[in-house]
Amino acid sequence: MEPDRTKDDVVHWMDALHAHISGAHHFLSIRYGISCWKASRWIHAAHALEGLPRISEALRSGQLGIDKVVELTRFATAETESNLVSWARGVSVACIRRKADVAVRQAIEDVRDAQASRFLSWWHFDDGRRFGLEAELPAAEGAVLARAIERLAEQLPVMPGEEGACHADARRADALVALASTSLAGDPDPDRAAVVVHAPLEALISGEAGCELEGGGVIHAETAKRLLCSSRVQAMIEDGMGQPVGVGRMAREPSAWMLRQLRYRDSECRFPGCGARRFTQAHHIEWWERGGRTDLDNLLLVCTFHHKLVHEFGWTVSRAREGTVRWSHPDGTRYRGPAPPAETFEPRPALAAVG
């Protein structure tokens, strides 16, 4: 609102408008280029100021801006307005808004409406290569979900180049997937919990065709190979006519005994500087589809995030005879890893995960 506009102007406009049009907030929205939501707040504030002379004077004299006044009128009374004017001078609009959100009485019907309108939906786009999510939850349940995601995002390994705060959204997305992966890993019905990949044999060999996820979605053959390192992913290997030539992962998947030995030997993700014990998987150093054996000498423990580097980002990993593990960039240069920052998650043995 322009600085010289006070409650008298707004009330005058409203009285005139009510006589001619309904939905005065639409007029204000168009006239001043503001949202209908904000226009409705102005209308409410203009009428509330009739009974709040101290706040009205603070607005007229410039002691308080219109945004602060709009929030104050949501909960101020004639008895509290003097103290609120003094308090509002020294705080931000956001602070006043938070106080208003708490102070405004909530009807139980609003709580029930929020519960009834909860939803979560998803869809594929970009020709099946991407996955979208949209959700709406009551505030309490939303706080639980947000805290779980934020907490896990603080603990997850970080992809090289994504260490900065500008990648926080990406880390939260990784955390959401990690929560889902943990749920699948603990499901007592492994068949129903398995993610099924329909993979043409030629695609796995050449890497030039896509693979289809049961239920929708298309992934690159290299992504399919990485997923197949998980015991919760089942492959349907198909010939050129779409007929299955093999189902399952009998020869490829390490036995439970071998996984225990691998976790005992490696202890944590072997990517330099990572140290994660959660969300780890067994990776074939010499890939299984290229003739690599499923034995301890050819297996390496890696977390799901750094596993992607090998399959989708062109990194290579090898092990020397004495046991030294070497990671290399796609250009062949060796990666020795950054010094772990002070806030890096320190894994605890009790948090060892199933892969």
Question: What structural keywords apply?
Answer:
five-stranded mixed sheet, 355 residues, 15 helices, alpha+beta, three-stranded antiparallel sheet, single chain, Arc Repressor Mutant, subunit A, elongated
Outline of the structure:
The protein has 355 residues and is α+β, with helices and mostly antiparallel strands.
Q: Can you offer a commentary on this structure?
A:
- Strands 5-4-3-6-7 form a five-stranded mixed sheet.
- Mean pLDDT is 78; it is low at 17-22, 247-251 and 339-355.
- Among the domains are: 7-105, Arc Repressor Mutant, subunit A (Orthogonal Bundle); 256-351, no CATH class.
- By secondary structure, it is α+β, with helices and mostly antiparallel strands.
- It has helices spanning 7-18, 24-32, 36-48, 53-61, 66-72, 81-89, 93-103, 108-116, 139-155, 168-185, 190-193, 201-206, 221-227, 256-266, 304-312, and strands at residues 119-125, 130-136, 195-200, 210-213, 218-220, 233-238, 244-247, 280-284, 299-303, 316-319, 325-328, 334-335.
- Helix content is 43%, strand content 16%.
- Strand 6 and strand 7 form a beta hairpin.
- It has 15 helices and twelve strands.
- The protein is elongated.
Strand order of the largest sheet: 5-4-3-6-7
CATH C-level class of the domain at 7-105 is: Mainly Alpha
Just name the CATH architecture of the domain at 7-105.
Orthogonal Bundle
Straight-line N-to-C gap: 57 Å
Mean pLDDT: 78
